[in-house]
Amino acid sequence: MSDDALWYEAALVVGVTNALNVVADAPLAALEPAQPAPEAEVVFAEIRAFYGRADVPAPFRRVAADPGYLADLWGATRRVSADNRLTRRLKEALAFAVSVTTRSQFGTAFHLGEMRRLGVGEGGVLEVLGVTQMFSSYTKIADTLQLEPDMGAIAPVDWSPAPGGAPPSPKVRAPEAP
Known about the structure:
The chain has helices at about 5-25, 40-50, 60, 65-80, 90-100, 105-115, 120-145. It is mainly alpha-helical.
């Protein structure tokens, strides 16, 4: 598993980013609590300090009426955002790419702001956007053409189980017609 630690860390960034975007972009105005739970203020102070800002980002405000939900969402976000094997700047670039490709209004603006706050200049932002656009375009083309992966000889399928899971069953393909 240690050989794949970078991939697991990146996958967690993608998952938590998506979770924040779903909460923030939900079109239900009723999710914005009129009064956060009293316990929320302690978590809000941590969030403000972590992001170096006076306001609390929308997804955390939206769940603040439920202290447990707020604490869990913030705990996951804080853990995944901290420097580890991947730097926070790289994680924000990944979160920005995820937000752009999922068309999250909240996430795109928020993670762009975080990238800039962490020192990513215009050239860096354009590079992340360019790579995101390129891979998103290739994926759309492959999906439209219903292409099957052809990288088996270069990178064979790894059938080993994910941590804590049972091994997946290999797909059995029908023989191709001559």
